[in-house]
């Protein structure tokens, strides 16, 4: 049987699902038996959870393993695989971008993003991850009653568990060339985090680790996965999210987080999150 593309035979049940982030999304699918499917996503990493059925389904390169309700597969971005669908299956996919993964790991662990190595996982069982995934899926199904903040937080919890539990991120054996040292990464991260309300210049950051601005910018992007400007922009937006949970006025928040004016903050917030700060705040109430 010749393999066909995933999109040709899958039935999308996700019209009711939504979320605030461009970098993270969830879709729910159903697929009938009797097909051999090729799956590859060149834009996002995919965490898949079988919701019902699929006990006879296999991945052709590992035929001894069988799918089951409640089991997970993890498929890194760009990796291709072929599946025999021997039983109807309903499943959900959580997609997250590599740029989000890099920002998350650089922020949470101050790790050089080149150290991130994603490995595929097949039919894994984990009750804690399953509970977190189902909570995330339910929140997106209940978008009328769940805030964007709640949906986003639940999505982050799932990805954090993927990082922690399944060890899909490993340090490579050879030392990578270029980039910032571990000490420099920690120093730069905390310097940015402590000065989000101020004007931060490339020259100041570069000088703190003894590099020229041009060389620093290149080494920063190697280690953090983003340019200094984009990474600082993202960190400011994360700070805005935290402050939106307080009673501070939007104009006050924009000053605290280092934006030139409120409209600039609104523009950047909508770019990263997909909604305005006012909408994001109202959804929390």
Written description of the protein model:
There is one protein chain. The protein has 285 residues and is an alpha+beta fold. It is 44% helix and 18% strand. It contains eleven helices and ten strands. The chain has helices at residues 6-9, 98-109, 127-141, 148-166, 182-194, 202-208, 213-224, 228-243, 250-256, 262-273, 277-284, and strands at residues 4-5, 10-12, 24-31, 35-39, 45-53, 58-59, 72-75, 81-85, 89-96, 121-124. The strands form two sheets. A six-stranded antiparallel sheet has the order 2-3-9-5-7-10. Helix 3 runs antiparallel to helix 4, helix 6 crosses helix 7 (213-224) and helix 8 (228-243) packs across helix 10.
Set out the fold topology.
Elements: E1 4-5, H1 6-9, E2 10-12, E3 24-31, E4 35-39, E5 45-53, E6 58-59, E7 72-75, E8 81-85, E9 89-96, H2 98-109, E10 121-124, H3 127-141, H4 148-166, H5 182-194, H6 202-208, H7 213-224, H8 228-243, H9 250-256, H10 262-273, H11 277-284
Parallel strand pairs: 1-4
Antiparallel strand pairs: 2-3, 3-9, 4-8, 5-7, 5-9, 6-8, 7-10
